[in-house]
Write a structure and sequence with these properties.
Blueprint lengths: L31 E7 L5 E9 L5 E8 L2 E11 L2 E7 L4 E8 L2 E9 L2 E11 L2 E10 L18 H15 L6 E11 L2 E9 L5 E8 L15 H6 L8 E9 L5 E13 L2 E9 L4 E8 L2
Antiparallel strand pairs: 1-2, 1-16, 2-3, 3-4, 4-5, 5-6, 6-7, 7-8, 8-9, 9-10, 10-11, 11-12, 12-13, 13-14, 14-15, 15-16
Length: 290
């Protein structure tokens, strides 16, 4: 079951919506080659290996678990513009459609069946609203990291999940409409508010940033497009703090926060350490192509 709060890293990923630039084009000056993750228990492991094409487009990302490849994201382009992302192991993919320089639709399929249909609203060349028509169950293909587990307690995430399951069964409807409203501070998303049809609950996320280059800027790396927005990949700079607030239908309020601390080489980060208000922390390290 899709979580209304399944937004916000701590992931993966995608673009500044500026009319003078083509969306779907990701070509950073420094390109990631490997990502390592050290958990709060101190165990370091290889998490991702990135492979690039000769034309500087991202070919694939191998995701590792216990030292072996768990699954792979493969990227397909037309004139260096991303048109499809595949996860063959889980039989799912996303197709991207454009209107001139802007992204028009993003459609997510599992087993050939449409599960998510995204459309976009713009203002001054930037996306200000994502409308997500979610259809039925996404099954076991949910590979995108749930960022809430870094902000809220595991118990709260489980409670929210159960709440969303009940919400999705109201009236026997199979389709839910999620709306993500984005507020911008120059080239960074400073606020995201999430609502869903059939519910008065709201989720609000406020983000702060450094002034350094974000290596994931303008990349689509998550199957659920809202995770691209919440992970900071729409933004030019790196997230340094996220404050989250969940208001349930019964009036209960949940809050949480997470802080990010970086080390840099030049203008790009080489490591990211985060810590949430529950005392959980971890370290992510980046290697770049030479």
């Amino acid at each position: 079951m899709k979580r209304i709060l399944s937004v916000l890293f701590i992931a993966c990923v995608a673009m500044l919506f500026v009319s003078c630039q083509k969306e779907g084009v990701y070509n950073p000056s420094k390109k990631i080659s490997k990502i390592y993750y050290t958990s709060y228990s101190g165990i370091k492991s290889l998490e991702q290996v990135w492979t690039w094409n000769k034309d500087n487009t991202l070919q694939k990302i191998d995701y590792y678990d216990d030292g072996a490849i768990d699954y792979t994201y493969n990227f397909t382009y037309e004139k260096k513009r991303l048109v499809r992302m595949n996860d063959y192991a889980n039989n799912c993919y996303v197709e991207y459609k454009y209107d001139k320089n802007l992204l028009k639709e993003a459609n997510y399929y599992v087993g050939g069946t449409l599960c998510d249909a995204y459309t976009f609203t713009y203002k001054n060349g930037k996306i200000v609203k994502v409308t997500d028509n979610w259809i039925g169950s996404k099954g076991g293909a949910e590979k995108a990291i749930n960022p809430l587990r870094f902000i809220f307690s595991e118990e709260l995430c489980d409670a929210i999940d159960q709440s969303q399951k009940r919400m999705g069964n109201v009236g026997g409807k199979a389709t839910l409409v999620y709306v993500y409203e984005l507020t911008w501070d120059k080239d960074n998303v400073s606020k995201m508010v999430t609502t869903v049809s059939g519910s008065s609950a709201t989720q609000t996320y406020e983000m702060s940033y450094d002034k350094m280059n974000n290596p994931f800027y303008r990349a689509y790396l998550d199957f659920y497009f809202e995770d691209n927005a919440s992970s900071g990949c729409l933004s030019k700079n790196n997230i340094t703090r996220i404050e989250a607030r969940e208001v349930e239908e019964d009036g209960d309020v949940w809050t949480g926060s997470v802080d990010y601390e970086y080390t840099y080489e030049g203008k790009y980060p080489t490591s990211l350490r985060y810590a949430n208000n529950y005392g959980i922390s971890s370290l992510t390290e980046y290697e770049y192509l030479k």
